Amino acid sequence: MAHIPDGVLSAPVLIGGAALAVGGLALGLRRLEERDIPKTAMLAAVFFVASLVSVPVGPSSIHLLLAGTMGMVLGPAAIPAVFVGLLLQAVLFGFGGLTSLGVDVVDIAFPGVMLALLAGPMVRRAEGWRLVAIGGVVAGLAVVGTAGMVSLALALSSADYLPSLRVIAVTYLPLAAVEAVIGGFLVGFLARVKPEVLGRQATREAAA
Amino acid sequence: MNGASRILRRTAVALLLGFAGLMALAGEAAAHRLKLFVTAEAGEIAGYAFFIGGGRPEGVDFAVKVTDGREVHRGRTDAHGAFRWRPETAADYTVVVDAGDGHWTEATITADRLTAAVGPQTPSTSPPTVKAATAAPASETTAAACPEPVDAAALARLVEARVDAAVARQLRPLIEAQVAAEGRVRFNDVMGGVGMIVGLAGAGLWATARRRRSEGEAS
Asked: Do A114 and A149 form a contact (C-beta atoms < 8 A)?
């Protein structure tokens, strides 16, 4: 799925992906404040572990990506977090190639970060169920975005590996639904216990 | 700072709980990758593709290629992700399975594992037979007990094919287990990765603290 192995993508796609990933990494690291480092590392660890666990669905198998959730909590720092997680998965387990690491980082992290940036003002203002719904939509759409990016990377490389729409639909849509539930729940939870994480004003209950 | 340490503690607890939950859920820590098991059975290339952690790609394309990249056969996997194809000549074949969603894997089977059944076949396709006793009227008494083979080479081929089939049958579970074990995600590796992330965070904190201190000294 999102772990594209070595030898599939063409050189221009690999180079383009690597360049974008380096740009994203630089942006994410520059924005990374000292106090955000533990938070970023924890989410990187969660991503690393969670995306190792896969469940068979239809003709393929899926695993969590958590990109939308990471984007909402970390902002651009989600890019280095995803990079570290993917690098370790590639080195330790051979999931995804090292040459395609840049493309994989772009595929997974960028949709989540961009959607979270777009939804940022709404996440900061919305309350109650509306907030949960926004979190769910961001997390779910991030998966759809990743599916689109992976398909695009494969389509740009070679017609041989063009993903079939049917397989993408039956594997990514359930994943998007699951991630939407997780993202919505997490955003709702964070807004209650630690609103600053989402860039919200601390409410009285949370401060108490 | 108090708030920061509280969220750190909370997140750490949540992380550990979530981690334990995931591990319990996955049992043998499952992972995500398409792998391929290929073996030679009586001159046929057979095997199946599987996802580490469960699931087989059903009804997806598989292709058989020779060493120069030329495609010699293309088909679809069955409901169990399995495929089967009989090559006409023994050669090094590479089987490629494309699950259609960017998952893709290949494995090569060497010529020597196909040779016995496919390779130096006699022009006549009839299997080597053993002459019946009636065909050797000169020695009626001994022929009934110990029939003579048509020729030694044919017998050797027959024996070799049978032995190959038996060995392939016995080896199959072993190779399957080996291929599965190769891709298994081990708990130690996962913990090693988590440890590395913690170490990176520590290094990052150390670097920023150092920079802050040197800035403080300069001013």
From this structure: no
